[in-house]
């Protein structure tokens, strides 16, 4: 087994929430090709993996996966929290209240002073709302284009940073895999040589043991013959 360190992070990645990653111990996939040589082994491996996957609780995240982010956990944003819960539950968005854009007259005829006062306050509020909208439109027409360009520039700069970080990480991954392959191929030749040498030594030992057995049998035969000759004398 060969130990390789975890793939290093790109410059723009901050993995402060993750603990120190231990060394990864893997097999020698670039050297061990038994699965390619013996197809029946692949079927056995797939069956074993299928049995192991059934034992794994899919709802449990890996220990290195950070917990999900909880939004609006405090009472600072009750409206946003309620809207998030509505979207999570899949409930339809409530319809727009159009009463605020209408100018209803008093329902009674003739209307009371209180009803007319309420209708007048509503008309004044809507008039002020329209004035604010005109002011916002004027501000947007004056400054909106530049603000939009600046915002787009910031987004493009952030996108380029993430793209560069992604490319750096991919390059690091390729380099680690290339180094792993070179090491395994280099060490694989040594393993093959040692395995061949081991086979030769085992063969020599077996030959010596067989020669010893033959010698023991020959010695027994000679001893018996010597005993027979001794009896004859």
Automatic annotation (TrEMBL):
InterPro entries: SPF27. Residues 155-182 form a coiled coil. It is found in: Nucleus. Pfam families: BCAS2. Keywords: Coiled coil, mRNA processing, mRNA splicing, Nucleus, Spliceosome. GO terms for cellular component: catalytic step 2 spliceosome; precatalytic spliceosome; Prp19 complex. One of its GO terms (biological process) is mRNA processing. Its main location: nucleus. The keyword Chaperone does not apply. Belongs to the SPF27 family. This is Breast carcinoma amplified sequence 2. It comes from Ephemerocybe angulata. The lineage of its organism: Eukaryota, Fungi, Dikarya, Basidiomycota, Agaricomycotina.
